[in-house]
Amino acid sequence: MGDVYIGTSGFSFDDWRGNVYPKNIKSYEMLPFYERELGFNTLEVNYTYYTLPSQKTMESFYKRTSDSFTFVVKGYKGITHTRDESFKRFCTAFKDGLKPLGNRLKAILFQFPYAFSPKDENIRHLEAIREEFNGYESVIEFRNERWLKDNYIDLLRDMSMGLCIVDEPKIKGLMPYYPAITSRIGYFRFHGRNENWFNAPSEVRYDYLYSEEEIRGFIPSIKDISRKADTTFVYFNNCHLGKAVKNAQRLKELLAED
């Protein structure tokens, strides 16, 4: 098996205070606590979807974690959603902001909306991202199940871009759970199964606690992918009230038992 890193999608949430963090924890203390006390060795940085990363913030993340701690950073939405002349500018600024992470940056996750369907112009956009981020490990998260065909999975393999294996509500049109590997990186992202997905605000959309049975159900595919990948990342995005932490810690325990 290759290395398996387990963590959560973000760490700085007010509703984690009193649930998984001490009630009076300061914001700057959260990331060290996440590593040392909660026991995680990796983080999926999510805020970078909404705003471009700054070197100052990335340097702070780097300094507040140990040398063995790893990062995956979510791509800025201006990169995934933009087709005009600002695309290259966003890519350049994004890469510049990540420089302080150095070799502890292990991948970039590019998440596309449900409306991003498999058509020629969108395939060309994937190719443009691959060209801009040559030298980085890129992982693609599709929301639209129409991408789940052999020719599109093979397309990712041909471009050496990873497929994000998602678990999310079983709603028609959304990507189902489909464990596959298309690059050196294995990547799992667990959103929860709240069926009020399309209409709910984010704090409700991700309000879901996986059961023991559901967590155990992921283990065979995580093991299978990790045997094929150099490195496998598993992130829980059901962050409401710290539920992601509880599920990620339990998964770590179960994998350690085998």
Spatial gap, N to C terminus: 13 Å
Rg over C-alpha atoms, rounded to the nearest angstrom: 17 Å
- Strand order in the largest sheet: 1-8-7-6-5-4-3-2
Record field, number of beta strands: 8
Strand residue percentage = 15-25%
Shape: globular
Q: Helix count, per DSSP?
A: 9
- The helix-strand sequence is EHEHEHHEHEHEEHHEH
**Low-confidence blocks of residues:** none
- Averaged pLDDT, please? 95
Portion of residues in helices?
25-40%
Largest sheet: 8 strands, parallel
Classification by helices and strands = alpha/beta
What can you see in these coordinates?
The chain is α/β, with parallel strands linked by helices and 258 residues long. The chain has nine helices and eight strands. It has helices at residues 30-36, 55-63, 77-81, 86-98, 120-132, 150-158, 202-205, 212-228, 243-257, and strands spanning 3-8, 42-45, 70-74, 105-111, 138-141, 162-167, 185-190, 231-236. An eight-stranded parallel β-sheet has the order 1-8-7-6-5-4-3-2. Helix 8 packs across helix 9 (243-257). It is globular. It starts with a strand and ends with a helix.
SSE layout:
Elements: E1 3-8, H1 30-36, E2 42-45, H2 55-63, E3 70-74, H3 77-81, H4 86-98, E4 105-111, H5 120-132, E5 138-141, H6 150-158, E6 162-167, E7 185-190, H7 202-205, H8 212-228, E8 231-236, H9 243-257
Parallel strand pairs: 1-8, 2-3, 3-4, 4-5, 5-6, 6-7, 7-8
